[in-house]
Amino acid sequence: NKITDSAIINTVSSTIDSKVNAGVSNIKLGNANLFKGFPTIEPYELPIYQDVGSFKQFSNNFAFDPADYIGEQFTISFYAKSPNGAGKLQLYNRNINPRYFYFEPVILTNSLGNEWQYFTHTITNIDRGEGFTPSNKIEIYSPDKKGVLVKEVKIEKGNKATAWCPSFADIEQSISESEKVLNENIDNAISD
Known about the structure:
By secondary structure, the chain is an alpha+beta fold. 25% of the residues lie in helices and 31% in strands.
């Protein structure tokens, strides 16, 4: 019976190892993605805002503390499209008067359409002082179209956007979840 348990464990481990290695070999890392919480390239639909547009305040998605990077440049990049007709698309961080990573609305386009479009915007992270609220967010807003989709959101240091990759925080979470499943499978194999 121990031979069978050992054989099962080896088979399960070998299968998981090969799947993890195959998945990792397909990851192309450019500059580190500092935007966590979106580990895949699947499109995300911005929630409806004021029954006419789409808006999302991506809060607590930074994999870094902006207070540690005063004076540094960061580039935000993502794809977007509007399946419900052409509309305006804005990117900013000004609600609640953020202390860090503040920038006024930037009109990325006045004619976001039904085809994926790629957008980038570079900011310099400043400290606006103690009278402002610490924040960890970016805001994407389409004031006149519902159902706007975004994908491959990335924040990286520097002034040049590179190809999307998952954040290290998302990779670590995925590995942790895979380890949990592996351990559950091993425990189930041994108890059978």
